[in-house]
Give the backbone structure.
Amino acid sequence: MEEKKGFFKRLVDGLSKTRDNIVTGFDSIFMGYSSIDEDFYEELEETLVMGDIGISATTSIIEDLKNKVREQNIKDPGECRRLLMQSIKDQMDLGPGAYEFENRRSVILVVGVNGVGKTTSIGKLAGLLKDDGKKVLLAAADTFRAAAGEQLSMWAERAGVDIIMGQDGSDPGAVVYDAINAAKSRGTDILICDTAGRLHNKKNLMNELVKINRIIEREYPEAYKEVLVVLDGTTGQNALSQARQFQEATDISGIILTKLDGTAKGGIAVAIHAELGIPVKYIGVGEQIDDLQKFDADAFVNALFAEDQAS
Amino acid sequence: MAFENLTEKLQNVFKNLRGKGRLSEEDVKSALKEVKMALLEADVNFKVVRQFTKAVQEKAVGQDVMNGLNPAQMVIKIVNDEMVNLMGSSGETLKVNPGGEMTVIMMMGLQGAGKTTTTAKLAAKYKSQGKKPLLAACDVYRPAAIKQLQLNGERVGVEVFSLGDREKPEVIAAKAVEYARENGFNMVFIDTAGRLHVDDEMMDELERIREAVHVDQTILVADAMTGQDAVNVAERFEEKIGIDGVILTKMDGDTRGGAALSIRASCGKPILYVGMGEKPSDLEQFYPDRMASRILGMGDVLSLIEKAQENLNEETAREMEKKLKKATFGFDDYLESMSQMKKMGGIQEILGMLPGVGNAQMKMLEDSVDESMMARTEAIILSMTPKERSNPDILNVSRKNRIARGAGVDIAEVNRLVKQFEQARKMMKQMGGMMGGRKKGLFGGLNLPF
């Protein structure tokens, strides 16, 4: 079947279709201009917006770029491109301690709107951590969507980890409660809690999440807590609103950005990091169990801007 | 959202141009810059925005500003008209073969767009119209996808045909249609796996399904929150498979839904329905005019009006309006309007549809009126005497204390409610005035519950 690919190859592959657009865009900008003028910046702005980076993040990126160009007296559009890449890399850099939960006894709460790939990402994450020698337990706290529990238990089987399930329609808080007790008694390293997809503007559903969060804090205070919001890489500006609302409810510590194997550019991650300071920690680039990767700002931006078109 | 109302922005652009009779090229250009930003923030594809603003510019320059409108409103009117125009007409439906003749419909889209949920909703819709639909479970890849369809099918009382996940989707589709013919079904909905538009192998699979059975209609299910990529997706599905209609899902979120315009502009196919929630009944008709004002961030006024009409007894509404005018609106009416609001989907949904209700205000209102508070509000009002309810002005401290005890709440909550009531009364009065008066075209003859 398919050979196992390294991170960068997978990312480049995954993002290559992505790049077809953004790169042709960028290339034509950088190649088509012999000097850096207002037209150049305007078209650059447009291209960034087209990458779903969002108008406000785009504006600040370009301001930053303009200042640097002025300070360093840059005349060459190619040089300008290098600068732009660097500034996005700097912005997206994770910093130390981003994956601290791997080294501790921890609990990961996974949240997000419907259809972003929460359950799939959890399955992959469980596989990743299991391969790392961790003892992982899953909590199937999406008791709402039809067959969500079954879906997660299939992933648990694939990853070879244990799972705590609740009845369909039962209280998700109770499932989490049970899972915490199981994690304690089984000596689990990392407990991952799946939750039902919910639109961030539904107050009642968000309150339910607050409650789940509270149960974790109350029942498992000794565990290191990580809350990951899963965002669909094809989502536009609404992802910002999602990140904002989920952060308010649960104190988000990171993002899993999914579906980056299509033509979507995932630029919204840049916007979210710029506006909310929430880092991307993982990216999803396919449906296989090893298609979840730790986020690497260098590779991400390089792949996004890479000049050669991967076949 | 960091988005200000477009109307406001345009008003700023035209601040110095009040009273101009005709839109000059300069005016239009600076106005369209704001329109462009608004569209981009709504996730309309950049290329679509460019074509669109160009078309608007050509239309707008030199136009006379209509009586009663200021230049900003005139530009919005032109923009809005053009957008509605582009998005096609409302009430487009699936082409279903007449009588008992078999119709086969294939659902397709990216992962997580909401195909399985939508498929069940759609089947339920046709079932209620007297058709006999069958669901074919052809997503053999995603864990538990078949189970999900079966549970959804059960919920809406529609049979699901499945051969497990070992058969090829095209084989399942063919057998499903055969089964449908033999067992008196006249519609088959084929639920396919989510797939990326650039995954050639998976796109070929859709073609194979179409070769294996005669598919009458193909439906692209797309997430309303999709960003710039919506165009790529629609173009690719149209080119490889062909799209007959589009269903936009997750419209009950707070996305501005620019994807609707992008998809429509790029594949030219009608948007048939919008998904408004997770219940089987949450599939609504698509209205281009409402979508246009939503994308422009002008509030979904028309939807609100229709919702109000659907859910309200006209007579109660008229009575309420009378009371408002006479300012005899009391706590009983407040309670009544509260329960009517509940019927219309809660105050947040209603306010979200109103133009000019910004995020900050929304937030404030949300904090003050979340749903569990409604129950307490009810308790407080029910603890009042009829006299107090119809004449809130007599509420003094001792009365309030008694009410608080009766409802089992703190007196502060009673105070807050009284204050809220006063605000609501004021707001309703304003709205009453708005509706009664000048804007005949938009609000004329309508009775809102306030």
